[in-house]
Task: inverse folding
């Protein structure tokens, strides 16, 4: 079960090399996760109001080709593992117009309460992701 | 009474034109205000814990010459007006190595409580700024 | 002639107060200008390849109500003046779901060549904006 | 041979949870690499003018404890491998005041020319890093 989101590169996301700065891919991954949640009927803003905070435990990315301003990126996101303790995602970043793979990433997120203490991932997140 | 802070341009703050993106100057101004507070003995993180939140009511900047990666910027900040309702700052951004003026800005900040309701600016902020 | 763009607040655009950081509005304004250009048939990435660079000469914003993660913002942009030397824009930021005005801004952009020297704004930009 | 840099958390680097957004650690790592270069006598801005561009090939981070506004972070950076093709770094992020480990990361950078083609890492970078 793969989730798809298209993101247009914003001008300020490029750096002095005219390419998307590598740190911005982690913001794209976050957008992908939030949209994925939303399509499953969960609003992340609402989850936080209920005291359910998702935090990134680890994240990484491998860069194959640069993305430029003017590119639309297609991010394909897959849940590769989901337990009460953590959810793992894999991300593939393609240039939309020709399908060229630009980057690939993965992350593990965990769930904390308002005080930052690790808590069980709610069942509806484990199931629907 | 003028406050001075030096900020080295960070690589990711430049955009596709190789120049510091104009929106980043407002982050520099924020750094200047926070440092100014600190030199007066006030820690902004501590103020927030006490329920004192400073919010920007309006802000603007005029750009004269571009800043580049490798530049160190000197920001001169002055309080131009301080009342129980608001504090106005003026900012001058110079290239440190030759003193060339790169930009000039101004802002008005107000004070809100934890719920976002406007409150009187604490006296110690009006006085010491 | 007013241009309209909807922007969903991204999680990382909020700050420690849970609100959209004030500097991010200037990134939203840039998005609005770029989209406005695109709807007129001009691709900003393409303009840069042709040596036409648009730079912000001055910009400002007044904040009325905070925007939060979960909000969709509607930005209404108007060209208030366009000459061979500069184009002025005015921006109105509304919360989309109820139309509440959150912020209002204005900017002046100018045109430079690859070396950063001010040049005449191309006619097609003055006309179509 | 370990490099050390202290970075004060900036307010806008925190997100809606009041913590430093995870993507910002990759900006800190970049700062650490640039400073490390500088201490070895190499100015990255100057390298780019000479057509030597360093690009991130892969990067990752594991988060142990959150960083907050008000924290000063100490980043310890080590070159774990350096060849003509790539330089690997390891990063340790500590909270300066008590030495608590907040995060740990690693990256591989490569060298490209002005056109983005992979080139040999210059000897002086392999040696001195």
Result:
């Amino acid at each position: 079960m793969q989730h798809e989101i298209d993101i247009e590169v914003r001008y300020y996301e490029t750096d002095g090399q005219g390419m998307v700065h590598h740190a911005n891919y982690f913001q794209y991954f976050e957008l992908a996760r939030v949209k994925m949640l939303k399509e499953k009927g969960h609003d992340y803003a609402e989850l936080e109001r209920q005291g359910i905070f998702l935090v990134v435990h680890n994240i990484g990315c491998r860069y194959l080709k640069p993305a430029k301003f003017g590119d639309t990126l297609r991010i394909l996101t897959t849940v590769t593992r989901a337990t009460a303790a953590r959810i793992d995602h894999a991300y593939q970043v393609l240039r939309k117009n020709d399908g060229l793979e630009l980057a690939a990433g993965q992350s593990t997120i965990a769930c904390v309460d308002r005080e930052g203490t690790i808590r069980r991932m709610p069942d509806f997140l484990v199931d629907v992701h």
About this structure: Chain C touches chain A through 15 residues (CB under 8 Å). Helices of chain C lie at 24-39, 44-49, 123-128. The domain at 2-128 of chain C is CATH 3.10.129.10 (Thiol Ester Dehydrase; Chain A). Chain C has a mean pLDDT of 93.
